[in-house]
Design brief:
Distance between the termini: 19 Å
Number of helices: 7
Shape: globular
Number of strands: 10
Structural class: alpha/beta
Largest sheet: 6 strands, mixed
Order of helices and strands: EEEHEEHEHHHEHEHEE
Length: about 230
């Protein structure tokens, strides 16, 4: 039986400015441990809004969201901040690295915030993540001296540093050329297969979505279908 790492029960979300708009309507879904899941749909369908709810960054909704058997709905911001840092990694379209910090220093940031490891062990863990991503030789280089594809790999290492249960990707290949998009996709695939991590990615890239394990399609705030890729 599949192990659901994330459960969404009857979630509804409204925007109130400039006028009330029911952006997500009766969303029910699950994501499973070790699954590579993509969320697709036209611009404005609600997929990025849903991603922000799933990642606990937005708490203004009705319904329930459970992650790793913890009901995160209704929890305060201090709890959610700690929970996110321990259980969720983020990879965005833009890498959001600190430009003057080295690759290694950027990767270490979430783990330093978590405070789980002494500094020396933390540095070693960060280096190992970069090594796994083929970026060990760039560890000491400032982020602003890296190529776009290299910067995104550092961002992935940063997302992995606390060994999260789920990695949330918001258009993770949207700012990359086809070669680097393929590299990032292969990294995600490997993470699910080798480390049993769950990837949930919002994407406009049909080829990207068609190669993930499962696709959930949204339209006008509703889930209108899902299919499993062979």
């Amino acid at each position: 039986m599949k192990n659901a790492i994330l459960k969404v029960s009857n979630v509804n979300k409204w925007f109130h400015d400039p006028q009330e708009f029911h952006v997500l309507q009766n969303i029910n879904m699950e994501a499973y441990r070790g699954e590579f899941l993509s969320l697709v749909g036209k611009s404005g369908c609600g997929k990025s809004t849903l991603m922000y709810l799933l990642s606990t960054l937005d708490t203004d909704y009705k319904g329930e969201i459970t992650i790793n058997d913890v009901l995160v709905t209704g929890k305060n911001q201090n709890f959610l901040s700690r929970f996110r840092n321990a259980h969720i990694g983020f990879v965005f379209q833009f890498h959001y690295l600190l430009p003057e910090f080295s690759s290694l220093e950027n990767v270490m940031i979430p783990a330093r915030r978590l405070g789980k490891y002494p500094f020396e062990e933390l540095e070693e863990r960060a280096y190992e993540k970069l090594k796994w991503l083929g970026m060990a030789d760039q560890a000491k280089k400032p982020a602003n001296k890296l190529s776009g594809g290299q910067q995104q790999r550092v961002a992935i290492a940063r997302a992995l540093i606390n060994d999260p249960d789920i990695i949330m990707g918001d258009e993770p290949t949207g700012n990359l050329d086809s070669v680097n998009s393929g590299i990032v996709f292969d990294i995600f695939k490997q993470l699910t297969r080798e480390f049993n991590q769950t990837i949930i990615a919002v994407t406009h890239d049909d080829e990207f979505a068609s190669n993930t394990d499962r696709v959930i399609e949204l339209q006008d705030g509703h889930i209108i279908g899902e299919h499993i890729n062979a």
